[in-house]
Amino acid sequence: MKNITYIISDIDKAIAFEWIVKHIDSTKINLSFILINSSNSFLEKYLIANKIPVYTINCKNKLYSPIAVIKCKKLLKKLNTDIVHCHLIMANLIGLSAAKLAGIKNRIYTRHHSDFHHIYFPKAVKWDRYCNHLATKIVSISDVVTNILVTKENVSKEKIIKIWHGFDTESFNNPNQIKVNDLKLKYNLNNNSPVIGVISRFTHWKGVQYIIPAYKQFLKEHPNALLLLFNGVGDYELEIDLLLKDLPLTSYKKIYFENDITNLYGVFDVFIHVPISSSVEAFGQTYIECMLSGKPLIATKSGIGNEILINNGNCIEVPHKNSLLIYEALIKLLSDNLLLNNITKNAKNSVLEKFSINEMIEKLHSLYLKELPN
């Protein structure tokens, strides 16, 4: 029996960890969690409800980090942890440091960002290198991440293991129609068509600023359309709000958060995801969620999109930073039912098996139980 502790930072709700709890082999693995800056979160409540040991540590800023490391070390000793698996930057810094001090030989972190620090916060690259040094294994979630680790941060290929994110494919593939209808009522969608969906934080690299001008042009031909912008908050919010001022107030809705992600895609007629470069997205879960849900996708290639998207096959691919071609893709999709149906069918077929939660769990089992030294 292996004692494995997940250390995660700055997370409220993360359904992926709920799926791991549900599917991990509890006859071979004792799973526990340490949550950094996540007190009273959805995830903590879920873990408590499912009788999974969970502890929280608050770390307000870097000055508190040494205290947090000491607290984390004590918890790891208490849990008799064999393997630490960290997720997100603060958890990586605190968790890997604590695990090293506690003498834990198997220290893993999953790299959830790609070249973000290299582009936007160069001073933070030293912390990535620090985590790379402390980790005995790094889980890469896409070829983009692997390439950055190897070519920009000089990580040995032997230290890296590639594991794609896994999804509860059944939930996305067969949404609960009652809950979909409830969402339509919640957002008052019954009189709008088509409904254009976006699930992207308002940050520069997500490219939402290129969607809005495209949608403005699209409205001239489809005045009853509605643009739904989920996760509508972030450091680029002021700039995006200025663009939204050019739209009629009734033509869009900005929503901070929706908990029911597996049924949300059911309210969209088209989904758009357009990060601004091929490497800025580490993975891009919305690509997979949309494709599993059978909704037509307009997208730029980034993260996992580089590995799976086929233009006019399972999506309409557009170049980065191009509002005109996003608009033209919308017109093309909604005027050609045969193309739309082929894209959604091909999209489902291309991701159903590759990105199942069972596939990911199988690889995690192999990592934890076979590949790591005892």
Describe this structure in words.
Strand 8 (195-199), helix 10 (208-219) and strand 9 (226-230) form a beta-alpha-beta unit. This protein has two domains: 2-166 and 356-371, 3-Layer(aba) Sandwich (Rossmann fold); 169-351, 3-Layer(aba) Sandwich (Rossmann fold), CATH 3.40.50.2000. The radius of gyration is 21 Å and the shape is globular. The chain is α/β, with parallel strands linked by helices and 374 residues long. It has 17 helices and 13 strands. Strands 3-2-1-4-5-6-7 form a seven-stranded parallel sheet, sandwiched between helices. It has a six-stranded parallel sheet with strand order 10-9-8-11-12-13, sandwiched between helices. Helix 3 (65-79) crosses helix 4 and helix 4 (89-101) runs parallel beside helix 6 (125-134). 43% of the residues are buried.
